[in-house]
Amino acid sequence: MVKRDWSAAEAAAHEWLDAWSGNVPGGVVLGMQNGAPKLIAAAGHCGAGLGPIDADTVFRWASITKHVFATCLLESKTFALEMPLVEALPELATAPAAVTVGQALAMQGGLPDPRECLTLLGVGNHERTEADALYQWMAGCDWLNAVPGTEVAYSNGGYRLLEVAMARRGFVFSEMVAAHAERLGIGMRTSEHWTDPVPGLVPGHVPEADGWSEGFQGMHLSAAGSLSGSAMDLARWLGDLMPRAIFNRIARPMPLGSGEATGYGLGISLARIGGMAVPGHGGAQAGYRAGFLCDPEDGTVLVALTNRDDADATGLIAHVWAALCGVAPGTLPKPAGEWAPPGLYVAAGGALWAEVRPGSIIVRDAEEKLFEGDDGWFVSRAAQSDMRLRFAEGALTGTLFHRPVRLLPARDDQAVPDLDGNWISDGAFLQIRGRVLNWGGGPRKCAAPMTPLGNGRWLFEANGRRICLDRLSDDRLRLSLARARGVEYQRL
Fold first, then answer.
1. What share of the chain is helix, strand, coil (3-state, %, to 5)?
2. How confident is the model over 150-191, as pLDDT tens digits?
3. Is 326 a member of any domain?
């Protein structure tokens, strides 16, 4: 059993939190062992006129919701993990129908993420969408990001589908959460929409050039990220969950179809810290960041919740955990630094692209920090974004999400896209003239320059995202992001 140094953990927490002291948004770190609080460190304010943050301040938990839903699903004993989704949702299109329940929960189903699909259709983050309409639309999407069981790549799609399947069998997630909250005497609760009243919820803060704005999401929330509560609520929930056999099941990583090991289970990932594999998860929503780590061997829980969009809650909690366990700073992974020539890279075919930056890589517009590995390799620390890369012979080689890759520097071949005209997808409309893509209408119309990647691939920016356009034929093109790689447009 690892010896715990709670004084060192508290000092490590303040190394981060002290930068948030004063009249700015902040966060809280809470440590608990066998139900007894051992560490409470907080800094910053809840919002204008709302006072300082503490262990009982209510935040959105974002994707930390996932392991709670996985727990409820297993408790219902309704679906076997090996069961294809079509057995619960017979109206699903052919492609998602064969994805299993386990694959959907373990990020192996290749299911497209609804939020990123909406972005590719020009629907903004603040536009409201409803649960039934979202489900009917998702059920008809007959494509996947990847062959099920071949990669671990993050998506909220499986959780939304399974929440519908559970409700049809009489197991409503919000009601199950409410029953657990009442049993434990905690304030954990779900929300249908961002605007639903939540007692004590603090606003999330997004940094702007001239201060802060309040975070907002229009899309209907789901079992992928609908929970809120305090740090004390989350610690008590985890303290109750860890001794139960069901925790071992959701925390156990699910291997790929090939049998290759992964670090991601059912809403729980394993963080590698000083030779330890520590169960936990992170979460991010507009204005909020969250993270937790835990050890069922001695009932230890660490939670970090923040109400600021620029916080790195998972990095904070890993830093505190290392101090708690006496992991020497010199034994922790070293940030990558200048690990490869910066710039854009692209696969020989298809829409896989990346941008190398000092200390990180952006893949399909999703950034991941990298660290020095062995023998000149650079690796990620996120089980749901597994990466092992190096630059050799003019190319990035290695693996992304457990799949082999070779990416070459993008090139401007001076080609004209030859895509002039009007394009439509499921009612969404865009227009291309030369190297400029026009999207939206009226005051929301934007003209986005198209950056060439070579071989019929182009990048453009819209709704704050860099989107890849892949020309499939004279009359078909595909738009893609990290979690949604198959939205096709037809030329009118």
1. 25, 35, 45
2. 999 999 999 999 999 999 999 999 999 999 999 999 999 999
3. yes
d(CA 266, CA 259): 17
- H helical segments located in 283-401: 313-324
Q: How far apart are CA 176 and CA 366, in angstroms?
A: 33
Same domain? For 461 and 320 the reply is no
- In Å, how far are 218, 348, 362, 405, 411 from 395, measured between CA atoms? 40, 11, 16, 10, 13
Over residues 419-434, mean pLDDT: 94
The DSSP H or E segment spanning 232 is: helix 231-241
CA distance 204 to 57: 12
Q: What is the pLDDT of residues 395-424, one digit of tens each?
A: 999 999 999 999 999 988 777 778 999 999
214: which DSSP letter? Answer: E
- C-beta separation of 113 from 157 below 8 A: yes
CA torsion sign, 137 to 124 to 451 to 422? positive
Domain carrying residue 401: 343-409
User: Is the pLDDT score of 87 beyond 80?
Assistant: yes
Q: Is residue 337 domain-resident?
A: no
* CATH number (domain holding residue 83): 3.40.710.10
Residues belonging to the chain: 492
φ/ψ (deg, to 5) at 489: -120, 145
Q: Are residues 426 and 403 in the same domain?
A: no
Q: Tell which phi-psi region holds residue 35, choosing left (phi > 0), alpha (psi between -120 and 50) or beta.
A: left
Q: How many CB atoms lie within 10 A of CB 23?
A: 9
Q: Same domain, yes or no, for 31 and 59?
A: yes
Give me the number of domains the chain comprises.
3
For residue 262, what are its two tokens?
């992964």
In sign, the C-alpha dihedral spanning 20, 22, 24, 26 is positive
